[in-house]
Design goal:
single chain, two-stranded antiparallel sheet, 14 strands, elongated, 6 helices, 21% helix
Length: 224
């Protein structure tokens, strides 16, 4: 995970944050079937150090291939609170809209940002076979989810959750962009000054500055 803050020192010295690009980046995909240094945290709050294998974005949202000097194990979606691979944190979520999965944590704070990925329809990916596997107790068809994939095979979804909220909000949904002023100001309404800037469409507080707004809120929340 990287938060891309372009010329951060310059931004604060010049006071020109509004004019700069601030982007909360999605985690990079890793190398197919490669093992990386990582750890898993079980539901009993036990943290185990070892190595985790990367398969693809879909597989690693549902399964965690873990090995250490003590054991080798494949964890499923119900086994872990979180895991890290190559420094990137993945957190278990159980949301009524998005189901059970491990999602990549991009930002943690008053507003936490996560990414998850949906494999595109079979017709959109030529030359692939489907396999059956159990997902949340149901046997479903997925496009061979153990195969090597590239990012073009997936749809990226950016989720956000406020510190006191129960559900995630889909930042990638067209509805959020279309109602940005209302949706974003509601999301930060406990920070009245920031919410007012968004409602009034002040410079630097519009849809294109969404990620900057998130980070500004988190800075305020950390101090409050």
């Amino acid at each position: 995970m990287r938060i891309l803050l372009l010329s951060l020192t310059f931004l604060f010295l010049s006071g020109s944050l509004d004019a700069q690009i601030v982007s909360i980046d999605a985690p990079a995909a890793l190398v197919f079937e490669q093992w990386y240094k990582g750890s898993v945290t079980t539901n009993d709050n036990e943290t185990l150090e070892g190595e985790i294998q990367w398969i693809n974005r879909q597989y690693n949202q549902r399964r965690v291939n873990f090995r250490s000097a003590a054991s080798n194990k494949v964890y499923t979606k119900d086994d872990l609170k979180s895991y890290t691979i190559n420094g990137q944190a993945y957190q278990f979520v159980n949301d009524p809209n998005y189901g059970k999965r491990y999602v990549a944590r991009a930002v943690e704070g008053g507003l936490s940002v996560y990414y998850y990925y949906i494999l595109k329809s079979e017709s959109a990916i030529k030359g692939t076979n489907t396999v059956e596997h159990k997902d949340d107790g149901k046997v479903v068809n997925h496009i061979a989810f153990t195969k090597e994939r590239n990012d073009a095979d997936f749809e990226e979804v950016m989720l956000i959750k406020r510190h006191d909220a129960q559900k995630f909000i889909n930042l990638s949904a067209p509805a959020f962009a279309m109602s940005f002023k209302k949706a974003m100001s509601n999301l930060v309404d406990d920070y009245a000054e920031l919410a007012s800037k968004i409602k009034n469409k002040e410079k630097g507080y519009k849809m294109l500055q969404r990620d900057k707004i998130i980070l500004e809120y988190n800075e305020w929340y950390a101090k409050s």
